[in-house]
Design brief:
The protein is α/β, with parallel strands linked by helices and 431 residues long. The chain has 14 helices and 14 strands. Helix 5 packs across helix 6 and helix 11 packs parallel to helix 12. The C terminus is likely disordered.
Amino acid sequence: MKILIINQYANNKGDRAILFFIVRELVRNGILARDICVSTNDRKPWMDSPVKEYANIRFIKWGWNGESKSPVRFLTRVSSGLKKRYYLHFCIPIVRLVVTHSWKLPFSFLFCSRDFKKALRESDLTISTGGHHLTTILTGGDLSEQMYDMALVLSMGKPLVLWAQSIGPLLFTKEKNMQLACHILEKSKLIYLRDNQSKSVMPEELTHDAKVIRTYDSVFGLNDVTPTYIPPSRRNDRIGISIYAAGKRTEVELNKYIQCFAYFIKQIVMDDHAIHFFPMELKESVSDDRPLIYEIISALDCETREKCLVVEADLETKPHLEEISKCRLFIGHKTHSVVFALTVGTPILAISYHPKTLEFIQQYHLEHFGIDDKILDATLLTSIVREMLSRIDDIGKMEYDKSAEYGAKVRSDFQGMLNTFKGNSVVRKDI
């Protein structure tokens, strides 16, 4: 059975953790390494990855080929701009028409990279990696590369599974693109949702369809990565922080964000805690969050700065989870930093830029420890953290036990999904 995994973003550590889970589970369930192919926006960051070494899988370009790189930055921008126009004005209208009318895409080589076309043609099943791909949250109302690739799969008559998704918001500037998103949902063979919020943006007739299955985030399935649990009160006295740098902010909003964290950190350091910043994007990527982290640190006085450390290494999934499991408490603004902490039983204060984050902590009955980033305030952060520290072991143990339950379900759901397409039962193998 040949598997094509699409929508894989290379530079975000949450997305990389999802791929780690999927590859691990494919191999555990008897899929051969040579039969796994991953479509990614950038192949270079995977060259030294344990995922590649672990399963010897192939990495290819996205169907919407965004790899336009030149030693001259200006030429890269020009090339990327021309490709974007080509896809927006020629490819998308035709692929949208084909999917809407259930036609077969003619001259497919005009619409995607050669490697993508070959891998798709050879595949028995295509899996969208999961996370947050069917949305307009970062596209300004346009169609994203991820949605285009989902449409490509359907236009070539291949089975598509949307695995552990958050769906929406779907606020398209063109009604035709909204219709395409609905067709992707209608024509996918199986849809696994990682949150209930997603149902509210789906076509109503689909919300009761047997092919729509409730699961949890893929990373919860990695709860067995750190089998030895240490109560938070017995860990080193450090508090982890992951910030959110991807959102668009005005200069005033950015300064407010920096000052909020700077004031909060000063209060926490005065309580004798150390601060460890965990970047959630790869170093020197377009969305690298380190520059903003250093702006926050620069806003601190010298004495407070000495208690702050930035985890500079681009940690892969397993060591990243292990490091978070050593924190006494965690403040997470990036969604998967929240998921990472929940997975390993590190008490988490979740800052939400999307309802999915608050729903994740509600799944753990910890909604009191989640705040919307629209009301982000240093005094509020400090107050909640001090309350959490007063019952830190109870919170951590509750998280760890829930992760064992959710992790088992995610792995079981993934196995069930594979068995649906294999047509027979598979004996799991430990690795």
